[in-house]
Amino acid sequence: MSLFGLETPMERPSPGKRAAVFVPKSGGDQAGGGLFQNGSGMVGYRNPDGTMTIYFENNRFNDSALHSWQNKVFKAYDRLVNGSPTVNKTSCDATSVVQIGFVQGPEILVIEMPQLTDWLTRSNALDSAPEGPNIHA
């Protein structure tokens, strides 16, 4: 099931507004040329040309506060809505990612838990998985 369409945000959201949550598509070329790892939290929106703008958090420096997947998502969301300077931003073809839900302010709704579980398993980060699909900071 794909959530792309009318539900996918079409521009950078302002703080407190909704952004899409993504995972790299299983198989084939990985979005971002292998940028995503360690169970990256990925948020973003669709561009007018059909590509996706993705902000992400890998927890590259093993910060214990960013171990959980949802904390990575919230960190990426904060960068996105505030337009923070970051190297953790990319544009990719929409076919290389799967939208699994939404983040809005302090809440994440994961609609496609099997896709999230698959991503966390593929990236050896299953221990960072949320307890359920409704996540509140």
Plain-language structure description:
This protein is an alpha+beta fold and 137 residues long. It has one domain. Helix content is 18%, strand content 29%. It is built from two helices and seven strands, in the order E-E-E-H-E-E-E-H-E. It has helices at residues 69-82, 113-122; strands spanning 18-24, 41-46, 51-57, 89-93, 97-104, 107-110, 134-136. A seven-stranded antiparallel beta sheet has the order 4-3-2-1-5-6-7. The longest helix has 14 residues, at 69-82. The radius of gyration is 13 Å and the shape is globular. The mean pLDDT is 91.
Give the termini separation: 27 Å
Shape: globular
Output the helix-strand order.
EEEHEEEHE
Number of domains: 1
What would you report as the Rg, rounded to the nearest angstrom? 13 Å
Amount of helix = 10-25%
List keywords for this structure.
137 residues, seven-stranded antiparallel sheet, 2 helices, 18% helix
Protein topology:
Blueprint: E1 18-24, E2 41-46, E3 51-57, H1 69-82, E4 89-93, E5 97-104, E6 107-110, H2 113-122, E7 134-136
Antiparallel strand pairs: 1-2, 1-5, 2-3, 3-4, 5-6, 6-7
Give a brief outline of the structure.
By secondary structure, the chain is of the alpha+beta class. The protein has 2 helices and 7 strands; from the N terminus they run βββαβββαβ.
